[in-house]
Every structure is written in structure tokens, then in C-alpha cells.
Amino acid sequence: xxxxxxxxxxxxxxxxxxxxxxxxxxxxxxxxxxxxxxxxxxxxxxxxxxxxxxxxxxxxxxxxxxxxxxxxxxxxxxxxxxxxxxxxxxxxxxxxxxxxxxxxxxxxxxxxxxxxxxxxxxxxxxxxxxxxxxxxxxxxxxxxxxxxxxxxxxxxxxxxxxxxxxxxxxxxxxxxxxxxxxxxxxxxxxxxxxxxxxxxxxxxxxxxxxxxxxxxxxxxxxxxxxxxxxxxxxxxxxxxxxxxxxxxxxxxxxxxxxxxxxxxxxxxxxxxxxxxxxxxxxxxxxxxxxxxxxxxxxxxxxxxxxxxxxxxxxxxxxxxxxxxxx
Length: 326
What we know:
alpha/beta; three-stranded antiparallel β-sheet; 46% helix; globular
């Protein structure tokens, strides 16, 4: 008896392989995807601008990186002792204007360089509700906890979201014509916006994704939101806040993603490093026992094998760990 409503997902014709170069950008869920890739030592830049929630801000940051348009001092605002940039996450906030500017432009430069041989970009949209700064007459990516009265909450225009993303994608495809784009909608519900408005917001994002994949032959949609809301609709798949997916839910969605997009070499790489990471995180009852020393010796042999198989991966941390315990 099936106790869930499974989401059918066709296997993708595009496949991520063991050496694919990947970038994730968007909501906090894209960081989960990026961390999964990094854990298995795929070449991945995970949310290079930290969390970006709405499509217009995402598109603007992509375009800015492609054209290497650096931030200027005039784009840095200040509240109390914090310097910040409305187009960026509070990760870049600093008590010094110079530090905020340098860190922001370092991310622009890094992303710009990363695009030159990019194979796949995973774009996760979080919300189509934005906040308009009244005095500056502009959409902000992050309100930086400034007073609510400085902003006007609004549903973002469908056409402006579409144009912002496709303008960035068109420029990326000039650099990397064979780039594959995976669109997905974050499974995190924005309950502070109200559940009715959250549903409207997510619906607008799903329609946006559908419109974009209709435009690009090399684009596809992965239904992470639908898996979470329908297939995993039991609250046991949520964290205590009843909003964010639990680790189990993230793992299930990740496994569905790999089933759709990974080729055999990517699966093998993931399996190899899952085993090694489990061994790395193993905590013995008796570190000085002969059994544990033998375990460490076996892991060093395995690391030697993997270092020949994946020469691009640095194994120093693994080697040091098991040599210390041996």
C-alpha cells in the first residue's frame, strides 16, 4: 500500500557528471543543494551571494556578475553602525564601508570568473513578494531589518520577473552556449506573508519557471516544492518551526534530484565520498584499540585509491585525520 502521493519526474536528458562545474543561486534551499554537492566534492559554487529570495534580485545579481559591474560607495547604505547593500544579504554587512564594498565586489569578481567554464546552474526561486524602498523608489533584495514603514510590500510583476531572468540567461548563454539551467521553487513556505499570499507567490514562481523552460531548450524544472508540499506533506518532514524541511526531507528531495540528473560517474563519486565522510565522522569507543587503528589504516588505503581516481580533490584533511588517529 502506497502511503504517499508520489510526484512523477521524468529522467533528464541532460546529465551531471563527476567533473561537471555547477553553480547554485537563490533561496536558502539552494544552499542545501550546494552543500550536498560540495560534500561529495563536486566542483560547485554554492550561493555566491548568500541567500537571494526573489527572481528580480536574482536576475540582477547574475547580470551584474556577468558584466562585472562592481558596487560603488554610493550603493552602500548605513543604519546605526552597519554598512550594507540593499541588493545583497546581511552577510555582507560590516561596521566599515570599505569591508562591505570589498567583500561584495569580491563575490562579483569570483562569480564572473566562475562563469567562463560553467556547465550547469541551479536557480531556486523563494518568493515573488518583494519590498519596495519608498524613499529610494526601488526594489530591495533584503530589508536588513530596517523599520517596516520604509518599505512597501508588493507582489512582483510577472513580466519584470521574466525579463530579469531571461536577460541574465541570454548573456550566460553567450559565454556558455551549452549551459544547462535547472529551475526550481523553494519548498520553504513564507508563512510570515500569510499562507494565502504564500500560495499566490509560489504559483507565480511556478508559472515563471514554466515560461522560462518553454523559452530555453537546455532548461528544465525540478519540482522540489511539489515533492515537499504533496509527497512529503506530513509534518514529520518539517523542522520544529513547521516551515522548513527537516534533514530527512532534504535528503529525500536530494535523492530524487540525483535520480533525475546524475549520470553513473556522478553517482559513483557521490557514493565514494558518502562512505569516506561516514568514516571521517565515525567516533570510536576506544581510539587506541587495535580495531580502530586497523580501521584508520584501511581508510588511508581507500584515500590513496580515491586520490588517483579524483586527482582534482584535495585529500589533506582526510589524510591528516586518519594519520593522527592511526
